[in-house]
Amino acid sequence: MALELRPNCECCDRDLPPDSTEAYICSFECTYCHECAANQLRFRCANCGGELVRRPIRPAAKLLNNPASSVRVRRATPCVPSTTTEG
Question: pTM of this prediction?
C-alpha cells in the first residue's frame, strides 16, 4: 500500500503538496510541516509520540496511478508533543 501523501499540516493546515520537502510524517502517516515538526513537536508526533521523519517524494510519473490524498486532516486540539510512544 502506498503512502497517502496527505495534503496539509495537521497543526497549522499549511499546504504540503506531494513534492514538498517540508512534509514530515510518523509511522501512522500523521503529517506536519517542518516548522511545526521542529518548533512545536520536537520531531515527535502529537498523536502517537512516534518519531517524525521527512516524507519521501513520490516521482511525478507515479502520481498518475497513485495520486496523493485530497483529504485534509486537522487536530481538534493544539499540537503539543505526545507523552506516549505507543500508537
Answer: 0.89
Distance CA 53, CA 81 (A): 15
pLDDT class for 87, splitting at 50, 70, 90? Answer: very low
First to last CA, the chain: 19
Taking each continuous run of H as one helix and of E as one strand, the counts in the chain are 2, 3
Residues of 13-51 as b/e, b for ≥16 C-beta within 10 angstroms? ebebebebebbbbbeeebbbbbebbeebbeebbbbbbbe
* Residues 39, 67: Cα–Cα separation, whole Å: 30
